[in-house]
What we know:
Blueprint: H1 16-35, H2 37-48, H3 59-82, H4 87-105, H5 110-113, H6 115-132, H7 137-141, H8 150-178, H9 189-229
Keywords: Cell inner membrane, Cell membrane, Membrane, Transmembrane, Transmembrane helix
Membrane topology: Multi-pass membrane protein
Protein name: Inner membrane-spanning protein YciB
Amino acid sequence: MTDVTSxxxxxxxxxxxxxxxxxxxxxxxxxxGFFLHSRLGPVADRIVGTEFFGMEGHELxxxxxxxxxxxIIALGYSLIKTRRIAPMLLVSSMIMIVLGALTFIFQSxxxxxxxxxxxYGFFAALLAGGLLSGRTFLKSAFDGAFDMPEAAWRxxxxxxxxxxxxxxxxxxxxxxxxxSGCVPDxxxxxxxxxxxxxxxxxxxxxxxxxxxxxxxxMKHTAAEEEGDKA
Length: 230
């Protein structure tokens, strides 16, 4: 008898450079637009025939106008290449696009300032809701990177929830404090400081949080592997 083993085709994945470009490309474009506003704003106005993007105090609008198309292109590339978009990237991008659009429609930067708060709060609520209903969404988010007992995943999930809640609260404190003295159509140092915190401080804090939990993850991953061998 011939032993025929059917194997499902492996899912296409973005390689390291592609993944980095999809996730970080829009952020890099945003920072370029914000911090090179004095050079790029007048160019943008000439292209679209307005006197809006080059105005002092409109750094955030120019950065958003440059970033949103790049974000959509990045999502499209991921969808074409892998026929899927990572759930966390998709949700955070949709929130970004909606709040970015509202920022332009109402010409209110508040919609963008609260974007991290909404994203952190949403994922905290999602993880908590999953745990309360007996599901560990965090395990799915790691996409099989670690194999730990369910109890360990639940503990790690609660840690993530705590971190996300703290991050959401801190963002509210940061943007409300730093932009309290900003006035329309004027450059605001506080806004620039908040952009730096959002773009660099939050990712560094996230990396530090994950690094601090790696001993816990490694401990329970090793315990699970030993249990499988027993």
